[in-house]
Amino acid sequence: xxxLAPPRNYLAAYPAGTHRxxxxxxxxxxxxxxxxxxVTVRLQNGEADILTNFPAxxxxxxxxxxxxxPGAVSAGRYQDIKPIRVIDTRGFGSKPRAGSVTKVDVTGLxxxxxxxxxxxxxxxxxxxxxxxxxxxxTAYPFNERRGSTSSLNVVRGTDRAIGVIIKLKREGxxxxxxxxxxxxxxxxxxxxxxxxxxxxxxSTGGMFVPMDPVRLMxxxxxxxxxxxxxxxxxxxxxxxxxxxxAAGTAVLNATVDRSMGAGYFTVNAARERVGxxxxxxxxxxxxxxxxxxxxxxxxx
Length: 300
Hints:
By secondary structure, the chain is mainly β. Helix content is 3%, strand content 32%. It is built from two helices and 18 strands. Strands 5, 7, 8, 10 and 11 form a five-stranded antiparallel sheet that branches. Strands 4-12-6-9 form a four-stranded antiparallel sheet, with no helix packed on it. A three-stranded antiparallel sheet has the order 2-1-3, with no helix packed on it. Strand 10 (169-171) and strand 11 form a beta hairpin. The radius of gyration is 19 Å and the shape is globular. Mean pLDDT is 86; it is low at 288-300.
């Protein structure tokens, strides 16, 4: 017989010329699936390798770089905050139409002391829901023209989320960014942190330190003797002991596989959340397809 099941492809990004250690960065559900992810990868001589498990077209957009520093600095350090939702268009009364641009104003987070007045960029989780057609969303700064890149690729009838790092700019007295919807869709934005500006205190805290990817948990293989998570469950895992004492924040890639129902997962600092989460990290549908999440910054 002929197996006509669509291949579950994946891509992996890793330093050029090194050996891949078994982790993946982007999972796809089948034929012609356009799936995005925000990936932070260590460079080797300024280059990275990308491996695909099945034939696929690959598009790579660079949104920023981390530059090594000899010591404490003011600008460019990542500061995590307790995740907070800043926009949910489902409360607008009407769905953002195809070709629309919606302003996401984060000025209020400055007043609340959540982000600095001169923050240079912001880390968010962008979620699309009730999508009317297969298309894309693009997040870009105030006072800039939208470029030719996308932030999130969407499929009709499927909720999708991705981590996005966006440069922040002012528009008059307001501070924030815009979201372009190529198809009619609702979207949500949850803020996870920001990058400091020149007015911040000098410090080494929040400086990015790259490491080779390592898989911390895989419930399919019963890591720690534990199997799949059921609805409402929480699973704790530790980052590698070699960096655990020094790390305050981790850059993670989380993948959900074999979901038994549509829903969402939330990544948060261990032993800090009380009650049901108010933000999501990964949105999934029922089935045996992996649901990828973009680069997600979480405190530990």
